[in-house]
Amino acid sequence: MLMRTDPFRELDRLAQHLMGPGTWSKPSAVPMDAYREGDEYVVAFDIPGVTADAIDIDVERNMLTVKAERRPVAKADDVQMELSERPLGVFSRQLVLADTLDTEHIQADYDAGVLTLRIPIAERAKPRKISIGAGSGRKEISG
């Protein structure tokens, strides 16, 4: 139901790590997991250290976009940074959602640095039984 939009994601992630923080025009990739749970798809994005108001979720047609920005923490003047490995900047991920998903009823929760989206499967895509009507028997076509 979900399709990857970037087959070179790991290569991009490594390049972004080496080249510096992401910007709004060229954001870094967001790691994610996606799985089906009952009648909905669940997508979990790792974006620790980001406040909920710095996360932007958009759906346009069947394209889901998640963008987040991790800003530097304000420090006092007498603080001297010894080590800084946590990336700052803009992080983004785009997913193409199948037409069988109900994008009108996506639920989003953010807890402990994990953004979880729950996307229900549309009613029209759920399996259903088709009843067979009893016909009036065989009909002969005459010409």
Biggest sheet descriptor: 5 strands, mixed
Measured by DSSP, the beta-strand proportion falls in: 35-45%
Question: Would you tell me the structural class of the helices and strands?
Answer: mainly beta
Order of helices and strands: EHEEEEEEEE
Termini Cα gap: 49 Å
Overall radius of gyration: 23 Å
Principal-axes geometry comes out as: elongated
Q: Let me know the number of strands.
A: 9
Count of helical segments?
1
- The residue-averaged pLDDT reads 82
Write up what this structure looks like.
With 143 residues, this protein is mainly β. It has one helix spanning 9-19; strands at residues 2-3, 28-29, 32-37, 40-46, 55-60, 63-70, 89-97, 107-111, 114-120. Strands 1, 2, 5, 6 and 7 form a five-stranded mixed beta sheet that branches. A four-stranded antiparallel beta sheet has the order 3-4-9-8, with no helix packed on it. A hairpin with a 2-residue loop joins strand 3 and strand 4. The chain is elongated. The N and C termini lie far apart (49 Å).
